[in-house]
């Protein structure tokens, strides 16, 4: 399975740290955030990676190159630097589809840290998406989606979990889309309404590294050896 790491965000909540450094290259535990993801993917046997970028994207390519120093092969999907260029999650994945191929692929937000075993993720035939959900963090107590006992994900009523930013998607999820900015969430909720989204509840470590405070919390956790 191929994997895509989303690395095109501007990182507004991380400013001024992201004024000169793209958020995926911020350091924690002696590695850039995106390098933690690359090493976990490699450990799971995933070698073919696609990384999208926009803000200061040249730094990401300079740091990671073609991936050989990290034991993987990386291709890039550039989205441009200017205002109005950001494609959002859905548009970014859609533009990278030619690099990802016709089979289901794994997508990971480049600004999270987690100990999910990517090698254990499964995608059911016929599903358009398989999502990793986590307990609701303090900054997002309302959650996103429900997960039933059958492992089906919905946007309906009931106790909610938070979408981790880790998912497996079938290219058909993007059928009918066109190049340009659009969000991923409406595609997912439409697929959920057709019972074509599965999921799992990850109960291990997960952190959305979206603010300087949460980056510091991650650094402290990794300094204690919790990797």
From TrEMBL:
Pfam families assigned: NTP_transferase
Keywords of the record: Nucleotidyltransferase, Transferase
GO molecular function, one term: nucleotidyltransferase activity
Domain of life: Bacteria
Cited CDD domains: NTP_transferase_like_1
Annotated ranges, domain Nucleotidyl transferase: 2-141
InterPro entries per the UniProt record, alphabetical: GlmU-like (IPR050065), MurU (IPR054790), NTP_transferase_dom (IPR005835), Nucleotide-diphossugar_trans (IPR029044)
Alphabetized NCBIfam families for the sequence: NAMPUrTaseMurU
Protein name: Nucleotidyltransferase family protein
Organism per entry: Thiohalocapsa marina
Lineage per the UniProt record: Bacteria, Pseudomonadati, Pseudomonadota, Gammaproteobacteria, Chromatiales
């Amino acid at each position: 399975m191929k994997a895509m790491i989303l690395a095109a965000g501007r990182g507004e909540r991380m400013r001024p740290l992201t004024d000169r450094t793209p958020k995926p290259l911020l350091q924690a535990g002696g590695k850039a955030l995106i390098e933690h993801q690359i090493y976990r993917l490699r450990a799971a046997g995933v070698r073919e990676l696609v990384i999208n970028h926009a803000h200061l994207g040249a730094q990401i390519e300079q740091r990671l190159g073609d991936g050989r120093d990290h034991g993987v092969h990386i291709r890039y999907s550039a989205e441009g630097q200017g205002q109005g260029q950001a494609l959002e999650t859905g548009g970014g994945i859609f533009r990278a589809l030619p690099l990802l191929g016709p089979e289901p692929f794994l997508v990971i937000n480049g600004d999270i840290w987690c100990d999910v075993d990517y090698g254990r993720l499964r995608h059911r035939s016929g599903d358009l998406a398989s999502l990793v959900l986590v307990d609701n963090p303090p900054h997002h107590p309302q959650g996103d989606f429900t997960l039933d006992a059958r492992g089906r994900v919905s946007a309906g009523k009931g106790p909610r979990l938070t979408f981790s930013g880790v998912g497996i998607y079938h290219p058909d999820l993007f059928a009918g889309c066109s190049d340009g900015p659009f969000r991923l969430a409406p595609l997912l909720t439409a697929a959920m309404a057709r019972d074509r989204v599965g999921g799992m509840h990850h109960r291990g470590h997960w952190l959305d590294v979206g603010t300087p405070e949460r980056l510091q919390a991650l650094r402290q956790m990794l300094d204690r050896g919790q990797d």
